[in-house]
Protein: Membrane peptidoglycan carboxypeptidase
Organism: Streptomyces spectabilis
Amino acid sequence: MGNKRSGGGLSPAQQGAKFLGVSVLAGAVLAGIALPAVGVIGLAAKGSVEGFDELPANLKQPPLSQRTTILDSAGGPIATVYSRDRTVVPLKRISPYMQKAIVAIEDARFYEHGAVDLKGILRAVNQNAQSGGVAQGASTLTQQYVKNVFVEEAHDDPAKVAEATQQTLGRKIRELKYAIQVEEELGKKRILKNYLNITYFGQAAYGVEAASQRYFSKPAKDLKVQEAALLAGIVQSPSRYDPVNDATEAKQRRNVVLQRMADTHDISQAQADRAKKTPLGLDVSRPKNGCITAVKGAGFFCKYVEKVFKNDPAFGRTKEARAKLWDRGGLRIRTTLDPQTQRSVQASIKDHVYQTDDVATAATIVEPGTGKILGMGQSRPFGYGKNETEINLSVDESMGGGAGYQPGSTFKPIVAAAALERGMSPGKRYSAPYEMPYPSSVAACDGKTWRNDPNLPAKLTNENESEVGPYRLREATAKSVNTYFVQMIGELGICPVTEMAGKMGVERANGKPMDQAPSIALGTQEVSPLTMASAYATFAARGRYCTPIAIESISTIAGKSLPVPKSRCSRAMSERTADTINTLLKGVVEDGTGKQAGLGSRDSAGKTGTTDYRYAAWFAGYTPNMSGAVWVGDPAHERKMIDISIGGRGYGKVFGGEVPGPIWRDAMSGALSGKPDPRFDTVRLPGDRDRDDHDGHDGGGNGDDDGDDGKPGDGRDRGNGGGNGNGGNGNGGRGDDDWGGWDD
């Protein structure tokens, strides 16, 4: 089978090479020359027999590129991806008509000759000599199979493809030698099966099963005689005989195959004549390949899975090895994506932000304690048109995302956690004026010091002029008081904060190190929604951070399981620190800036965030069993969210609790519907005796009042104020401002 041009037929140079090749091969065979010895004729330089005795180990049964199916956690399909649209099937699942048709048109004497068809070679030499060109080829089906194996191994490497298909005597000799071995070791039936599964049928369909589905939307076992003849005819020149683009040419070719089947007595002449009169009967199914076809808006999650696969050494020691395994396909990848969560994320996004808006939103939900990514979506869908994008707005740049977005005040709980871990009391008061300069100097990592320029001192303000301290941590967190947290990092130092961020998996989306500056307390370092969702999951998991994972299991088409990377969990902070943060952030959604994000009776906690000039707005929050982050903004960092319409509603200024908060609320509500309703382990904070906190959750160990009396509790809450939190002896504590060992 020659290397055809797009319009069909061979070039003059190819014709000459093929004529010469067939003639010389005929002479070699007739003379009884051992094929390996032919290399001495000096043609190696033209394409050669170098490495002639090195038979590839997988030539007899090459690992063919096939479809990979990506599934959600319930086993439902998300997308099918492939570099070759192919489904390998045994002969029993291929119509007998198809088997007969391909043999009749490509190698009618297939079952009579060995690897080399001597009669075919002599016939080709005679026909070609008479025509002065190439009227007929001499490759057997086995030789064609061997060539296809080398083309398959070359994959998309142009140089290797050219080498596998070059019209040289050296290649034909090598092809013949390999064909002899294949005939001896496989036998005719297996060769036919392998050939039908490897060969290209046009329209991006490799193998007969994919071709049958593409052209007739049916499995190969159900092909009728005229349908089988059409597919068999395509093989010689998939571009010339493409029935989708040239029905007339394809029909003529199909009828040639039908007549050939009659001539070889595979069907009767009457059958052939009837079949020739039938229309092509196409029922074309367009290929659905790649993450762009993903369901439930999971295209970006699908691409994230691909990135994980290609980047993780668990799937190959080198980048090239991982890419080859992915391209080979034939895998079933079950992911962590929860279908209920994903539907809820997409529905919430659609309700609140339009695809055509000036700004976009991205949301990600993960499971605390496991790192499983449960949902991932955005308002600009996966695609290449207007208001579509290939950039995954939820992840870091290295995983297909952008450079990230400033998280604003959603970073403040990380500062608070670092301070608590260093022994600072949550009752700590700072003056927190409306406006102040940054501290003159702040200790940084490696013994360095950040210094404020005395000539141009950097200043900051709170959101509202009414926000004037002194404040304790609870009120400063609820109101998101900037000056409080800058005063805190000024006393604490920058390094404990960046170290805590690192323990919680918070890294800049562009891969650069965190800046050693006190402004980090206000969320000036660009991060991704997945990063913030995973970081906040640390609080929900009572101080344990787990790296995000997207893949639960992978199996090959043969059912063999492949090892997959597991989440790595480590303690980022003490349970006491996490419980304190949970108490603080629970107050944010109950009484603070995140009230619009509350989940009603279900325990939830979170933090709002906005950036200077309203380029980004956030809400990051969690329940004990889910953690999510929502970002809203312009991915290009150009459109300020002032006097703007989002989701059909106008906003003078966008706040984190106003747009991202409700998106988070609706996404989480749907995701959690029907799921368990666990409670946080909360603590009683200094100063809480002045608050109406008798809600049964914020009190001491008895879970139904503030714990001051030290009576036995039911163990629902930790009971640091009174009782021991396990329904036990209730030996209690004072419950005053010095409670729990903190000194305010």
Q: What stands out?
A: The CA atoms of residues 362 and 472 lie 33 Å apart. The radius of gyration is 35 Å. Residues 1-53, 691-744 have pLDDT under 50 and may be disordered. The domain at 337-406+527-549+569-685 is CATH 3.40.710.10 (Beta-lactamase).
